[in-house]
Amino acid sequence: MNDILPIVLSILAAVVVIGALIPVLIKTRRNITRYPDTRDANDPEVRSGGGTAVDDSTGTIERGTPGGAGTDVVDTTTVPDDAAGLETIPVETPLPVAGRLTRLRERLVRSNNIMGKGLLALLSSDRIDESVWDEVEETLLLADLGTEPTMQLVDALRERVKVLGTRTPEHVKAMLREELIKLVDPTMDRSLNVERHADKPAVMMVVGVNGVGKTTTVGKLARVLVAEDKDVLLGAADTFRAAAAEQLATWGQRVGVPTVKSDIDGADPASVAYEAVKAGIEQEVDVVMIDTAGRLQNKVGLMDELGKVKRVVEKLAEVDEVLLVLDATTGQNGLNQARVFSEVVNITGIVLTKLDGTAKGGIVVAIQRALGVPVKLVGLGEGADDLAPFDTESFVDALLN
After folding, report:
1. Where are the alpha helices (DSSP H) in 111-213?
2. Do 125 and 220 have their domain in common?
């Protein structure tokens, strides 16, 4: 009897511990929604990259690898339950989009831009000779306007100065404003294609190299859409950068937006993107935003990867918007990045970050000329709401003030 008593006591202690853990496990489980998959298991796009397949009974993605198998769990992260012992991130109310334009314009006015102020000073000179025009040209080139747009603007200004004759600072500013607005091109459609279709959400892919603030931009753009009363879902398809998925999920939690992500670094980005769109269709959201990896070390690999993500997503829904995020402070290097990505996917718009940290406002014109697509959004600061739709006249006015 004495030998049995310790065993009974051990069993009772285990029962007590398990009973205490069950409520915590249940609450934690509520934060993860798994999605069974309906893809054709024979689809080569789905099964490529290590033999990706789906176990419909568990709703998890099984990645077959040489010599073994692992499991990628795709889940939808919601705001954690404080009672579960997890960190609670308060849901914030993003600032209205209209108010951001004024605030961002003020920041651009305060930034160190040499383009507008330098041109105003040169063109207000008492005598404009060839040396002044050389300085005008140099100022534009230093502002990363690009050779062709620079020649176009200089020619237009020469003609107008010749006709104008007497020039007051007011006349010069008005003339320069008109010509810069033409160059930035107000006719470009800068609206975001984020209107829900009859039975499917709008799908947006966000691309760009690592280090330009791409994941942060996705989070900030989610706030813009939430401020416009859009129901948003995020897909963390940048599975190669450490903590990228967690970073995106945190942005989503701040505005109450779910994030579909994999629990394993290096998971197949196309599978995660597919699951995100599938979840968006099931939950009838307005917009699904997919963050992608941005490694440029191997151009061919990048093309294959991004191309595959787009193709796999389009098995479920059309990709309505592909935004390229560029760091304005990189100047001409940003142009080279833009060209690489334009070869990979059909870029529909540019997001220009850190525009307040550069004197090179001409990069807006140069990028638009190089790609034939508009700058749709600009970032002017580190704040969560420091991202706003690009407005041609506001941008030019900020340069000249």
Report:
1. 115-123, 130-142, 147-164, 169-184
2. no
